Amino acid sequence: MRRELQRLTGSFGGAPMSRREAMRLSVYGSAGLLLTQPFGLRAQQFEPTGKAKSVIQVWLWGGPCHLDLFDPKPDAGRDYTGPLDKPIETNVSGIRIGQLLPELAKHADKYSLIRSMTHGNNGHETAAYLVQTGRASERDVFPGVGAVTSYFKGYDHGYKGLIPPYIVLTEPQGRFSEAGFLGPRYKPFATGGNPAATPFAVEGIIAPGITEEQQQKRRQLMRSLNTLGGVLPGDAAIKTMVQNEEQAYELILGDSGKLFDLSLESDAMRDRYGRNTFGQSCLMARRLVEKGVPYITINYQGWDTHKQHFQAMNRKLPELDQGLAALLEDLAGRGLLESTIVWCTGEFGRTPKVANESPWNGGRHHYGKCFSALVAGGGFKGGQVVGSSDARGEEVTERPVYPADLIGSIYTQLGIPGEALLPHPMGTVTHVIPDKTEGVPMAGLLKELI
Amino acid sequence: MGKSDATQIGHSSRAGRLVVAFSVLVVSAAMAQRAPRVGYVYPAGGQQGTNFEILIGGQGLDDPTGVLVSGGDVTSVVLEHDKPLSAVRAGDVSDRLAELQQRFRADPKAASLPPNERLAFIRQTLKELEITEKDLRLLADYDRKRNDPKRQQNTQIGETVRVRLTIAEGAQAGTRFLRLRTQGGLSNPMRFEIGQHPEVRETEPPVDYFDLDGRGSGRRSVNSYQAAVAKPVEVLPATINGRIMPGEVDAFTFHARAGTQLVLMVRARNLIPYLADAVPGWFQAVATLYDSSGKEVAFSDDYGFDPDPVMFYKIPADGDYRIEVRDSIYRGREDFVYRITLGELPFLTAISPLGGTVGSTLDVSLFGGNLGTERKIQYAVPDKAGITYITAHHHGWTSNAVPFHASAYPEENEREQNNTLGSANEVKLPVIVNGRIDSPGDVDFYRVKGRGGQPMAFEIFARRLNTPVDATLTVFDTDGNQIAFNDDHEDPGSGLTTHHADSNVFIKLPKTGECFVRVADAQHQSGPGNLYRLRLSMAEEGFALRVTPSSLNAASGGAARLTAHVLRLDGYEGEITLSARIKSTGKAIPLNNAVIAADQNDAEVSFTVPSSGAIEEPVELLIQGTAKIGGRTVVVDAVPAEDMMQAFIYKHLVPVDDLLLDVHVAPPKKEP
Fold it and tell me: What is the DSSP string of A298-350?
């Protein structure tokens, strides 16, 4: 029991967490973290300042094709464009995007496109690591942007919400250790469930089929069974556990938990985002930003289209278009876009040349040499294009942007100094943005957009 | 088949004449289409002197005309081509089938008909409704793939061609390459084994096409996951053939006598080396052996670095035994094809030495099971440097093949103790050292002399020779300072290797004098079989070539395209000029883009074929690369290969026997 209590109060090791453990830590633990100072890893004593207060990362898991989204190449020929050979004009003169993104085309003034992302890695795991940590996967396991943000803008720096500071909608990737050497304290809370369903069954907070009355009864039952608390009334660990439990129930039954109740939004608003998992995740992300959650990742699956690529694009791009455009417009309308970074990309692009041969029959493979990203808000300028690729989208021709450049720029906008130290477990001096001694490919922060 | 008691040895020959057997050869302009692509052949082999049906699965298999098998002595007759039903056609057949059921129900006598008359009634009604047996078969397959959550439509292997093959009695046993020819051209090659043993095929679950008594649409719901019914194998040795569908475990039973040294050898990855759209990127077979009480007595999921299982088991008591085979993570698909050879058969586990000097004759020791008493043989090393394969023979049966490294250098053996710089073996370049990591932590040092600035090449051959050594090479100067290191070095010429563990160092010595080369095992493993061959030589610039694909197709008067892949050796950076000719006649074929520039490793090459119509039989081509290296003219034959993808991402150049060109007539242009 004591061991269990120690776990709840944070003195556990760095072993991988199960979903259930993550839930316990994030719900019981998120409350507990308010009260305790665990770990040897303490954040540095500075207060981050910056235009951006929150980040929404739209992670197109699997790798979207840059030609079909943000870097169309209509003149490259059918072998490259497939049927998507008619890009559309946006509301910013000179910027054209993929033809299945008409809603985003209306808001190009709110975002900028980077058409020269590059890292050259074609493996899902290694490329996802690269894009989200800025560093190549080697001996050390670095934290991703969300965990670093949580480290610098979470509970260690005055964040007080009961909702954990780093939320993933809805599933963690599983292929990527978000917190790296920062440890489980900075792992995201993955909601599980489906925000497009009613209710949005957030794991550990909202249980489908269990009424609030039933929850209250369970709470009473637990209290009546709390015999250990009676035997050891002064035990600090038990006291902490009870406090955590109170906080957890506040999260489940109190106002904080209502945050996840999307039925509180109007039907019109829900329709605007699209009545699908991605669209409702975008709406949920906006609600989390309103509550001050510093980092939200929307893990949007289904972009690994080795086969039947264009059929998949016909399904997915309209979803992405509606949800992301609604998010940008809604954030802007509420005055939140200025303080909220939205970035959208995947671990890589896809092969510009369509694989028409068997067994692919119209697929696109992984392509890390050249791909695109969208960035908006949080102080990033809109209506800009950074860098360019060649006529077929195969090579970066101008202003390469490496992952470290992009996420370094995000840190800058969040007010996290690039030279701030990360608590490397071996004591190695490690800055948030890699310095030259690390040999990480970089071409400079996105000063064009800042 | 004559059997000999003497253990014999020889290297396998994959070059051979090409015999083309066509049942039909009708080339019409109207019928021509794109080249076929084959995903599997089932069964992927057959016994010498037998006649049997095979199923070829793939895409674009319209209008098949015949099958080509490298090495000859195989003839074929195409029986039938099946193409998956479109949704529209499936709906149409389904509607008619429902009508059949209605008619059956409406006829008061029909239900009480005896079985033979009932069948006649059904056949007559089918005929009236213009439904063929093939329609029913395709509809059942359509339903199965749509309704079964474990199955999916895989366009790339959705079509099938049934072919009857005849293998001549005297056909040479071994691995061949089979291609399907259609009026659209020649398919990619698939591995196909000519075996010595009787063949057994797994029992396919019965498929009933329709259900007249049921209340549904008349279409029977097909359950393809029936409980495994073990197929008896009556006589050993035998070769078992099967396919694994999702979640399936195939089972076979056999009787064995006490004292039998059983060898069970699975081929799955060796038949289809790489699956482009699967992770892991091949059918990873596992095999389990049970005794008559149901107790597991042996299990295998690989053999050394070969993913295919091999099992050795000495039968302790007379009885019935059961083998089960499945995919390691219970995947399955039509192309999860396997062959299992089972019996008291010769099996080579190792040979020593692992190689020798070209043109020499040397004693080779054999290790393994069921080899008889002759464990050392004299072997004539081929005249050409490279990796060749040795098989053993016992009681007329041929063993598995193991690699042998023929090199152009003198040979020396490692002399222990040489575990320190100070005790390094002094060797004179160029040389191949036969060494062994024989104890935990063993490292072997060699001392060589070189001139400052002179390029030198140090290279390990171990993993490519199937030994467990995962080498590292470290080079030190005379003061003991490390000046070079390599752990793994990718050899693109070794297309079936997925862990390129053999180290390779290319170095220019900073100054004239001695240097020390250290061999170690990266995994700190050791043992009597942990052998390696170390090449220590001055750099000898050169190159090897691969050309892909190995089946070239062109329309009459059109162009054939291929890619040449250059494997640059010992730092060669110069240009290479390609040439092509027809192998049988020597007739030269002018190539476009024939020069591979100094900074290129891949080149797209094309040539135009005459506009004299389709050719009767594909022709074998030879591509060569010529380069001036150090004042010499070096000519290298390109090895035909297939550029295969594994697990969505990794690419491998997998060698095949021959490079074939087929010419067909282009389809007429459609009216606008």
Answer: EEE-----SSSHHHHHHHHHHHHHHHHHHHHHHHHHTT-GGGEEEEEE-S-EE
Closest CA to A364 of A45, A81, A52, A19: A81
A7 sits in the region (left: phi over 0; alpha: psi -120 to 50; else beta) called alpha
pTM value surpassing 0.90: no
Closest CB to A358: pick one of B156, B648, B649.
B156
Binary contact (B59, A361; C-beta < 8 A): yes
| pLDDT band of A28, cuts 50, 70, 90 | very low
ipTM over 0.95 threshold = no
**Three-class secondary structure assignment of B393-424:** EECCEEEEEEEEEEECCCEEECCCCCCCCCCC
Indicate if the pLDDT at residue B26 is higher than 60.
no
Q: How much is the average pLDDT of A345-362?
A: 95
In the numeric block, which tokens belong to residue A203?
């794991």
Which residue in A237, A252, A251, A247 sits closest to A8, CA to CA? A237
Chain centre to alpha carbon of residue B495: 10
Total count of residues recorded for chain A: 450
Tokens of B25: 């050869």
| Among the listed residues B373, B548, B538, B516, the one whose alpha carbon sits nearest the alpha carbon of residue B448 | B516
- For chain A, the average pLDDT equals 86
- Other CB atoms within 10 Å distance of the CB of residue B613: 13
Nearest chain A residue to B37, by CA: A358
One DSSP character per residue, B504-524 reads EEEEE-SSSEEEEEEEEETT-
Q: Select the more confidently predicted residue: A295 or A204.
A: A295
Q: Which has the minimum average pLDDT: A319-323, A439-443, B129-133?
A: B129-133
Residue type, B20: V
Strand A54-60 and strand A340-345: the pairing is parallel
Dump pLDDT digits (tens) for B154-189.
899 999 999 999 999 999 999 999 999 999 999 999
The C-alpha angle with vertex B668 and arms to B665 and B672, in degrees rounded to 5, equals 160
In this prediction, residue B81 has a pLDDT band, given cuts at 50, 70 and 90, of: very high
User: Do the beta carbons of residue B146 and residue B152 sit within 8 Å?
Assistant: no
**Can you read off the two tokens belonging to residue B631?**
């004042």
B37–A contact, CB cutoff 8 A: yes
Q: Does B220 touch chain A if contact means CB atoms closer than 8 Å?
A: no
Question: What is d(CA A186, CA A257) in angstroms, rounded to the nearest whole number?
Answer: 21
Question: A390-426: string of b/e by CB count within 10 Å (b at 16+)?
Answer: eebbbebeebbbbbbbbbbbbbbbbbbbeebebbebe
Q: What angle do CA B411, B413, B417 make, to 5 degrees?
A: 150
Residues of B in contact with A122 (CB under 8 A): 649
Phi-psi category of B527—alpha, beta or left, where left has phi over 0 and alpha has psi -120 to 50?
left
Shortest CA distance to B251 belongs to which of B234, B235, B230? B230
Q: Take residue A238 and report the two structure tokens written for it.
A: 């038990």
CB contacts of B649 in chain A (<8 Å) are 122-123, 365-366
Phi–psi pair at A278, nearest 5 degrees: -65, -50
How open is the CA angle A416-A420-A423, to the nearest 5 degrees? Answer: 115
The number of beta carbons lying within 10 Å of the beta carbon of residue A315 is: 11
What's the pLDDT tens digit per position in B127-154? 888 888 888 888 888 887 777 777 777 8
For chain B, the first-to-last Cα distance in angstroms comes to 62
Residues B595-632: tens digit of each pLDDT: 999 989 999 999 999 999 999 999 999 999 999 999 99
Residue type, B626: T
Name the CA radius of gyration of chain B, rounded. 29
- Here the tokens at position B376 are 């050392």
Structure tokens belonging to residue B39: 């995903």
The answer to whether residues A103 and A321 touch, using CB atoms and an 8 Å cutoff, is yes
Mutate to test the interface with A, among B648, B649, B650 (most CBs of A within 10 A): B648
CA–CA gap between residue B167 and residue B57 (Å, rounded): 20
Return the closest-CA partner of residue A66 out of A53, A80, A49: A80
